[in-house]
Amino acid sequence: MKKYLITVNEKQYEVDVEEVKTTTAGAFQTLKSAPKMKSGVSPNQIKSSKPKKASANGEKVTAPMPGSVFKMLVAEGDEVKKGQTLLVFEAMKMENDLTSPVDGKVAAVNVAEGDAIAAGQELIVIA
Question: Fewest Cβ atoms nearer than 10 Å: which of 15, 64, 82, 112?
Answer without folding.
Answer: 112
